[in-house]
């Protein structure tokens, strides 16, 4: 039997961002990240990562991440940090500090309750 | 400045599966996970995780994971293990061994080239 450490896998991306693009109709009781204003944030994120040629950062659009009331929601792996950004400035800070300097942006981190 | 270790975040899920649901038209030069037969595999995965009440496993549908030729593709975090399953038996093995016993299924792991 092999453990992950024994497999000694190379790291495919330094950071893998999972950003929720779920859209539910206005007034839906669960809400959704798109209804919470996620669209311009994720567009800004994708453009910024591309413009800065951060080839070690992968941004993947996703379906529901389960904690709809906390949206907009994105997760960054391998750390497993869940972010709730609200503005494009928040996105800039995550890109510059977390992806650029390796320092998670504590004020934007949330811990969803399972 | 805070490191992730200093933040001491609780783990939201024990395993977070990102499974690619991208569908491109037949004959598209990039191909896609849906064209590679992913649909019944991910449906089986979702049903099995639900049936076994694995509440510490989150399965998130995603857009393109960048390595379309290697589809069907799913990633499991926090390990960052990339799997290329081809049958529902492969899915059963990942659920039983990786999520159940904590042992990644080495024969189904691939390492995409960036």
Automatic annotation (TrEMBL), chains A, B:
Top-level taxon of origin: Bacteria
UniProt protein name: Ferredoxin, 2Fe-2S (AaFd4)
Gene source species: Methylocella silvestris (strain DSM 15510 / CIP 108128 / LMG 27833 / NCIMB 13906 / BL2)
Organism lineage: Bacteria, Pseudomonadati, Pseudomonadota, Alphaproteobacteria, Hyphomicrobiales
